[in-house]
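Continuing the series of single-chain predictions for the mutant panel. This is the parent chain; the variants come on the following pages.
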Amino acid sequence: MISKNIALIGFMGTGKTSVGKILARRLGWPVVDVDLYIEAKENKIITDIFEKAGEAYFRLLEKEAIREICKRRQIVITTGGGAALDPENLEALKASSHVIGLSARPETIYRRIKDSRRRPLLDGKDKLKEIERLLAVRKPFYEKADFYFQTDGRSAAQMAGHILRTLAEKIA
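Parent structure:
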């Protein structure tokens, strides 16, 4: 029996949202997407928040949202790609959740997100090069997860099953 929340961290395009939905369905828990939570609270989409108020303001909203969400129990939390870079966010997530880090090769991430219009950190840039650069900076933060998995070549359903089996073995 899983007693803590499950929180997914990792770079954009690693499968956090897809895997999170499947985990939530299998556990009978709600899924709370931090970015969607912020959008609902602010009545603005993330790209508009970035454009109008900047990344620093968004990160403050993200920290507040994570603190609020972590007060809930028996939920699956999916975070944005930058959430784990803030030590306070990671501390709050670890206090309430089994933190699962998801990773993928830059080429896999590029293939998954290349047509997305909701990736403000990649706007106007060579997307693959920017993915490689950001991933190199962020990977050490993602590796602080309780468990860290590669998603290359695995479906979201396979990843969800792998996560649940790992948790059953490690926390039993």
